[in-house]
Design brief:
- The chain is mainly beta.
- The chain has a domain of 71 residues.
- The strands form 2 sheets. Strands 1-8-3-6 form a 4-stranded antiparallel beta sheet, with no helix packed on it.
- A hairpin with a 2-residue loop joins strand 4 and strand 5.
- The chain contains no helices and 8 strands.
């Protein structure tokens, strides 16, 4: 399947990004803390992609996933995320799309 744009209009709050290179970051500001959703898509076939989410308390990922690039947009939820700025970095075959929403 091809790359699917993430539905920004469906976001209560958050941010998204699309990239034509193998690394794609997105930053969400003013996250209230708690549970956050991560949406990711990679344009590759028969490969894997990885994303990791960091929050204001640590440069190490507090939530992450490795997923097959086949099958279109996938979504995950992460709980226990601290309030403030969150960053997700998606790595995989381009094109890439990544978003966070809460």
């Amino acid at each position: 399947m091809g790359l699917t744009a993430l539905p920004q209009m469906a976001l209560a709050a958050g941010s998204s990004n699309t990239c034509k290179i193998r690394v794609c970051p997105v930053t969400g500001r003013n996250f209230p803390g708690g549970t956050i959703s991560v949406d990711a898509d990679s344009g590759g076939t028969a490969d894997t992609a990885f994303w990791g989410l960091t929050d204001s308390t640590s440069p190490n990922p507090r939530c992450s996933a490795t997923f097959s690039t086949e099958g279109g947009v996938r979504s995950w939820t992460c709980s226990g995320i601290h309030a403030g700025t969150v960053t997700v970095i998606l790595t995989g075959p381009a094109p890439l799309a990544i978003g966070v929403r809460w």
